[in-house]
């Protein structure tokens, strides 16, 4: 596990799994509380470590849930710091 954090409205975890060729498969999972907690939305992003940060930056700019950005619990800089 590279990162984990939560707040009242969202929680997330970033996990790295090594592959046989030395690269890593990263999985970012975030859960969002909707409707005061009656509904939970899950957003999962999976990719190779070599392209993950660029794809995350794009996702943070372009994907929203109820008008709020998703996958924003961890910044690209947060992830670079633990890399």
What keywords describe this structure?
alpha+beta; 25% helix; 2 helices; four-stranded antiparallel β-sheet; 83 residues; Nuclear Transport Factor 2, Chain: A; two-stranded antiparallel sheet
Count the beta strands.
6
- Give me the CATH fold name: Nuclear Transport Factor 2, Chain: A
Q: On the 0-100 scale, what is the average pLDDT?
A: 92
Categorize the overall geometry.
elongated
- Biggest sheet features: 4 strands, antiparallel
Helix content: 25-40%
**What is the SS-derived class?**
alpha+beta
CATH class: Alpha Beta
Secondary-structure element pattern, one letter each: EEEEHEEH
Strand line-up in the sheet with most strands: 1-2-3-4
Radius of gyration: 13 Å
How many separate domains? Answer: 1
What is the end-to-end distance?
11 Å
Low-confidence stretches: none
Please count the helical segments. Answer: 2
Structure description:
The protein has 83 residues and is α+β, with helices and mostly antiparallel strands. It has one domain: Nuclear Transport Factor 2, Chain: A. The chain has 2 helices and 6 strands, in the order E-E-E-E-H-E-E-H. The strands form 2 sheets. Strands 1-2-3-4 form a 4-stranded antiparallel beta sheet, with helices on one face. The protein has a two-stranded antiparallel sheet with strand order 5-6. It is elongated.
């Amino acid at each position: 596990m590279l990162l984990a954090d939560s707040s009242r409205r969202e929680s997330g975890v970033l996990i790295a799994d090594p592959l046989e060729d030395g690269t890593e498969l990263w999985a970012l999972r975030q859960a969002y509380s909707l409707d005061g907690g009656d509904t939970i939305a899950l957003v999962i992003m999976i990719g190779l470590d070599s392209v993950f940060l660029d794809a995350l930056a794009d996702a943070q700019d372009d994907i929203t849930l109820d008008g709020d950005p998703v996958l924003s619990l961890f910044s690209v800089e947060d992830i670079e710091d633990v890399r």
